[in-house]
Design brief:
The chain is built from ten helices and two strands. It is mostly helical.
Amino acid sequence: MRNLLLFFSNRILACLAVAALLNGCGSVATRGESQDRVNEPPSLPRDYENALALMQSGNYPAAITALRGFIRKQPELAGPWLNLGIAYERNDEPDAAMEALATAIELNPDNAVAHQQLGILYRARGEFDAALDAYDRALKLNPGYALAHRNIGILYDLYLQQPALALDHYRKYVELTGDTDSDVNAWVADLERRLGDTQARMKQ
């Protein structure tokens, strides 16, 4: 049983939410947060596999029901709570999502994905300091967490009006992802131009 707990709470969490789900932003003015996407890892209990498959298909109400059923049997596992929080968020139930993510973090405080997802919820509520704290916690736990760099860059850029810090995180995201996100590349160019113009005016 102990091996199963370790499997779910540590290794599986990394497998469940490692791929970027980028919200196809068409321009610099529509910078949208990216979220973690649940992938279906092998060798899981059938009912948990079914819940993840429902999430993959976008059937979040059914996924929520399946995840809650699994959690009733094994409430001590952090991974299902994390996925329940993601499912609630995508089903437009932010309060329930917040509660599920808080439980996931209580069970496994060292999971960067849960903190990153919590940051998205705080940002949507307009609680920017709390969002910044959640993203910072995610990056302290995993400095190479590309999505957290992208989202904290958006927070600094559009909401906290700190373009230099935003540029640092956008550049780190590009470095980590291999220069494949055309949106972020455009945002980097835009901020470099704006910051360059500001510096030029200060020298006049």
